[in-house]
Design goal:
zinc ion binding, 3-stranded antiparallel beta sheet, alpha+beta, two-stranded antiparallel ribbon, 410 residues, UBR7-like_UBR-box, 3 domains, zinc-finger
């Protein structure tokens, strides 16, 4: 009975294979679909979000020298760095392609050969050197035997093992839209104000919103708007404060429109620490749509600019928005999974078994083939893959009694 269960658990159906292919296609569409694979993005300036790569063949020093780090766009990775050792960096924001530029002077860009201007606004975190997380290890890590998921911080855009996020209790990252690492929470302490206050993204207002001073001004420099009859604001009407206007007499009553223009209102919740819902320490996880709850009063917007995180107010900055655009660019013809399932339903069981046998044979041979490159620390090129399939097809044709040609995906 146990042997039967073991066999069933290892059994693979054609539907399983197609489902796995669908997941791979989904990832590819999400990461690459929103980027241009034919044209270098240099002329577009600092692109809001795009797929990026680092070439260690052209700049091997990048592993150890921070000033040597550089990034290239998707099109340049395909046209200018084919068969090179590339680090896939997923996506980065506000980046301009370095291929053939001042950071890669030994490289000639085939798509945009004239790149003389330094990309001073590019930011190069440790990912451009091939390491990630607070453990500063590569991914995948050949020495790490722990099965752990990695998640990207929406601020610094580094990737972290969930076990290294300094969390009191484990989080199911799939239940959340974005994550801010502990280091970025300390660098941007105003985000602590929202922890525990944004739980349902479908709500239109924050719970228990109150007014706080985010201007950094001393209380003595702030003049409160006082009305003897309305000194205490109602529960749905936060009490307002006005920035000091030293030129106006205290007793002079300004026109209503001027007073409104002078108000700098913030309904951001106060920092609540060491409570059940308040911020405690480490990384924070945020529900999808949390950014729309960030206060956009004048003082807060200036605060975001000061910390260089004003992009948090831009919905197009999110990875989800980027991925959705990429998926839409592929049209509505259906995925390989959908098309494959339709074709599979028209085949008899014997043919399905034959296809599965050939698929398992091909994957086994391919795994053995790739293991040689891993053992010798060599880069697999497109020619290597083409030679592998050519040899496999030749063996199949020369083998007697094997029926029709196998179904190989290339």
């Amino acid at each position: 009975m146990e042997q039967k269960e073991e066999q069933d658990s290892s059994y693979v159906t054609m539907a399983d294979i197609l489902q796995e292919q669908e997941e791979l296609e989904e990832t590819s569409r999400a990461v690459l679909g929103g980027s241009d694979e034919k044209n270098c993005t240099y002329s577009k300036g600092y692109v809001g979000r795009q797929a990026l790569y680092a070439c260690l063949t052209c700049v091997p020093e990048a592993r150890g020298i921070e000033s040597k780090r550089s990034g290239i766009c998707l099109a340049c990775s395909l046209q200018c760095h084919d068969n090179h050792e590339l680090l896939e960096l997923y996506t980065k924001r506000n980046f301009r392609c370095d291929c053939g530029g001042p950071r890669m002077r030994e490289v000639k860009c085939k798509l945009e050969p004239r790149k003389e201007e330094e990309n001073v606004h590019n930011r190069y975190n440790q990912n451009f050197a091939g390491v990630y997380c607070v453990c500063h290890r590569p991914y995948p890590d050949p020495e790490d035997e722990v099965d752990d998921e990695m998640v990207q911080c929406v601020v610094c855009e580094d990737w972290y093992h969930t076990r290294h996020l300094d969390l009191d209790e484990p989080k199911n990252v799939k239940d959340y839209g974005e994550m801010v690492c502990g280091g970025c929470m300390e660098a941007n302490p105003f985000l602590k104000n929202y922890v525990g206050k944004i739980e349902d993204p479908n709500k239109t207002t924050l719970d228990d919103t109150v007014q706080v001073d985010v201007t950094g001004l001393d209380e003595s420099n702030v003049t409160a708007t006082v009305d003897s009859e309305h000194d205490i604001a109602g529960p749905s009407e936060p009490k307002q404060r006005r920035l000091d206007d030293s030129k106006a007499p205290e007793t002079e009553e300004k026109p209503k429109e001027d007073a409104t223009a002078a108000l700098d209102i913030c309904t951001k919740p106060p920092v609540v620490e060491d409570t059940e819902k308040g911020y405690k320490k480490g990384a924070t996880f945020w529900m999808e749509g949390w950014r729309k709850f960030l206060c956009q009063c004048k003082a807060c917007v200036e605060l975001y600019k000061k910390h260089g995180v004003e992009y948090l107010l831009d919905e197009k900055d999110t990875v989800k928005y980027y991925e959705d655009v990429g998926k839409q660019k592929h049209g509505t013809n259906g995925s390989s999974y959908e098309q494959g399932m339709q074709m599979l339903g028209q085949l008899d069981q014997v043919t399905q078994v034959g296809m599965l046998t050939e698929y398992n044979r091909m994957t086994s041979r391919l795994r053995e083939f790739l293991d040689q490159f891993v053992a010798n620390q060599q880069v697999v090129t497109r020619d290597d893959i083409n030679k592998f399939f050519a040899k496999l097809n030749q063996e199949r044709r020369e083998s007697p009694g094997n029926g029709p040609p196998p179904y190989f995906c290339r």
